[in-house]
Design goal:
Layout (H helix, E strand, L loop, with lengths): L9 H11 L5 H5 L7 E2 L8 E2 L4 E2 L8 H10 L26 E9 L18 H14 L1 E4 L15 E16 L6 E11 L6 H14 L5 H5 L16 E7 L1 H7 L11 H26 L2
Helix pairs in contact: 4-5
Length: 293
């Protein structure tokens, strides 16, 4: 999610809708920094967001949190929804106030097939392979130098040290292609960290795939954190989803004066889950079946 003057983006669509409802003026629409507009995380091309949080300073209107979401949604494309609006503190910053971020990566399980096995729709992952993947994911947890997992950074760049709080295999599901009728097995991997660099998650997934398939060694994960340049393959952007932004510290500090930003309630969460399952994931399944990226 980021604004680009001559391209259709989620942020651009949102600003256009806000302008049409007179929530912001023309100058603010063109220069969002004028009303301190910030998003919690950026999503690159082919990467989707299940949940995104934006902060901004607006003239207070008690009707906006109640009527704003439905009014905005009537002007937004069907694949972009405003789920809720809440008043935050004056100092709240969507990105800087965020404690951590959870992403998921969904891909066909045949991506983990050994190099001497066929990578076809009929492949079904075994428990032993899942255990091997989870062992590899555990190595990434903690604080490490991830300069090999991004671009144009050196080993002595302190900003390359990132803290990974969780990394594990999640759901396995079958998707039936509507044209071929073939069923493909997909695996979702969840990762939570304080923050991530460009390409970091996709390269972490690429490393795990390479080791599981037998092209690299398990020891190469630890070696990739050392000051030795490694060429790590990057997984496609298609399966990467921004799942959730975490604001536990903010909620703890302002729980007596402001609504929580970590928990938006059962009704909103049900809508988010429905959109994730019926629109975003289905698009990933369809596109993966079509391109086999």
């Amino acid at each position: 999610m980021k604004y680009q003057k001559d391209a259709r983006t989620v942020e651009g669509c949102l600003l256009d809708a806000m302008y049409k409802l007179a929530i912001i003026n023309e100058e603010q629409r063109k220069q969002p920094y004028l009303f301190y507009f910030q998003r919690a995380a950026r999503t690159d091309r082919a990467v989707s967001a299940v949940r995104q949080v934006c902060s901004m300073r607006l003239n207070f209107d008690e009707k906006l949190p109640v009527e704003g979401p439905s009014a905005l949604n009537t002007l937004l494309p069907s694949d972009i929804r405003v789920m809720g609006i809440r008043r935050a503190t004056r100092t709240f910053h969507a990105q800087k106030s965020c404690d951590s971020r959870t992403y998921s990566y969904t891909l066909p399980t045949y991506a983990f097939a050994k190099f001497d096995k066929l990578t076809t729709n009929s492949y079904r992952i075994e428990e032993q392979t899942l255990a091997e993947i989870n062992e590899l994911l555990e190595i990434f947890k903690g604080t490490h130098n991830f300069y090999n997992y991004t671009s144009r950074r050196e080993a002595d760049d302190k900003s390359c040290f990132r803290y990974i709080m969780g990394f594990k295999c999640d759901k396995i599901r079958l998707h039936k292609d509507e044209f071929s009728g073939q069923e493909t097995e997909f695996l979702t991997i969840l990762i939570t960290g304080q923050s991530f660099m460009l390409h970091q998650i996709r390269k972490m997934i690429g490393m795990v795939i390479s080791i599981t398939r037998g092209f690299l060694y398990k020891s190469d994960v630890q070696r990739s954190f050392d000051a030795v340049r490694m060429d790590i393959p990057r997984a496609p952007g298609l399966g990467l989803l921004l799942e959730k932004l975490h604001y536990a510290n903010y909620d703890r500090k302002f729980k007596n004066t402001h609504e929580t930003l970590d928990d938006w309630g059962e009704e909103i969460e049900a809508k988010v889950t429905k959109m994730r399952e019926e629109i975003i994931l289905q698009e990933i399944f369809r596109e993966e079946s079509r391109t086999q990226s």
